[in-house]
Amino acid sequence: xATPTPDRTPxxxxxxxxxxxxxxxGIAPLDWLTTGLNAVGTAMILGLMVLINADVIGRxxxxxxxxxxxxxxxxxxxxxxxxxxxxxxxxxxxxxxxGLFMAIAKRRPRVAAGMDLFYALTGxxxxxxxxxxxxQRFREALEFGYFAGIQGAFTLPTWPVELAISLGSGVMxxxxxxxCWLRVNEMRRRTNI
Amino acid sequence: xxxxAIGSVxxxxxLILVYAGMYVPVALTLISFLxxxxxxxNLGVAxxxxxxxxxxxxRSQEFGVIPLFVMMGLLVSTSNIAKEVFEVANHYLxxxxxxxxxxxxxxxxxxxxxxxxxxxxxxxxxRVAVPEMLRFGYSPRFxxxxxxxxxxxGMLIPPSILLIVYAFIVEQSVGALFLAAIVPGLILSxxxxxGIYAIARFSPATVGLAPGGATLAVAGGGAVAAPMPSQxxxxxxxxxxxxxxxxxxxxxxxxLVIGGIYGGFFTPTExxxxxxxxxxxxxxxxxxxxxxxxxxxxxxxxxxxxxxCFLIIAAGMYSSMLGLSGIPGELEAWVRGAxxxxxxxITIYIxxxxxxxxxxxxxxxxxxxxxxxxxxxxxxxxxxxWFGVVxxxxxxxxxxxxxxxxxxxxxxxxxxxDRISLKDIFIGAAxxxxxxxxxxxxxxxxxxxxxxxx
Lengths: 193, 454
Description:
- The complex is a heterodimer of chains A (193) and B (454).
- Chain A is mainly α and 193 residues long.
- Chain A has helices at residues 16-19, 28-61, 69-90, 99-107, 109-144, 159-192; strands spanning 147-150, 154-157.
- Chain A has a two-stranded antiparallel ribbon.
- In chain A, a hairpin with a 3-residue loop joins strand 1 (147-150) and strand 2.
- In chain A, helix 2 runs antiparallel to helix 3 and helix 5 (109-144) packs antiparallel against helix 6.
- The longest helix of chain A has 36 residues, at 109-144.
- The two termini of chain A are 32 Å apart.
């Protein structure tokens, strides 16, 4: 099961081919959305670095730690990951091992398109479950005012985190469906030829 | 259906799906979801497991360590720091046989202390060191093999993304793992240099020396050789002051990060932030930083962070499903009943990892294998930090073994030279994979090697 066909010469020209599928035509509005969320997440990574350094310097040199850093980092890392993941999938960086898949794609493109359709559909369903549940958690957090931290010291509402999870998972659903759509078109095109 | 059966079927399905090209997190999530549904016979439980893990797994400030150390490594990779360190190392090692190869190892070890991703090291040193080695007559196989072998130091010498991911899977301290990996990483570097010297001795042609011809026989073992005159005589413009000027900022950065963790000044997350800022300043001072470069690095950081975190989330679901199936208890009972010795258990574990290493990437292997064995290790009272270092070395051997050795593929593509085939690089890397195996055995035999700094 786990050995590639011996005659398969791995394509040496582009190893990214062995790691990630090539970027293909996207759907413009969706690409704007994922790129936009990516930019917010990217800015947050830089912010994270600044925030923690401010705390380290403030604490060690001025005896003035930044309050609530732990809570903020905790929230930021989740928000960053869920805002970035749609774009990560879009540009083919969502982890997969496609050595065998690419070999199939070369010989039987329709079969490969069908397989990818199945993978993307599965992804859409699973992320759909997460998106819906996270949305409920968001509504709850907003309604009851859930917070992280210690009251009186520093508190941070949790609804932005739940919202980011729901939003990010929702974008994953749409991005997976976009891949499905591209694959169906590909299969149809190949049948017509 | 027993837990053991459910466990084995689920692992089999995950391997098939992953190998057939399904996204690794999706495959792990799908099987965990279906497995939980099957075990509990309750769709609701499966749904809440899925959601809870997605929402809660990474909600801890410790996970901030991932983007910060990734960014630190990427920033340093955009500068010419690797090249500078390589030139200094070469200046001092070029009189030795195979000196350029040793310089590559030394520079990689230094570079590894600022970056946590082997792939980055492989790409950078293919550009920096391979052309130099070829210029002085090293065989292409040997030159690329040295780079492939030494690039894995990036994942062993802290900071290392693999160590971080392992720490999260087994819920151990990232800082402790970092400190534990230092000595094994240094031992491997030294062994590489010894190995390079031995290869140069036995087959001078591989390092550009005509057999018997250019080599000077020197009293006392012949440690000094005369390589192609051009290399030794060539004025590289490096004196002690220049070397110090080049190395000092880098060593300062390493000392700040590792020393900060060791001295208890920083948590690993803070060390990551300080290191990233330090790398930013370092590249800035070298005049190689623009906002465009910084943004590109940060976007790349985001992609890597998101994909790693989703692997960890999916592995969390998978661990929970395995726990529900009762496989850990059954496996332990079975192992004890069969009267397995500890060494047999370790051997089986290593063999499984090495086999999977031929087809899967490092992080995926750990995510699939470690959760199954973890309860056993705990039952046998293993030191999980020590065993983490063993695991990382075993997993890393997979980066060098065909058919899918990622490090080798990266070198091949960076090289873009049709005269050097993938097969050449795999053959060149083989001695280094063997040396890694030896160091792994050494660490297994002497666990104390991992507790020097702890």
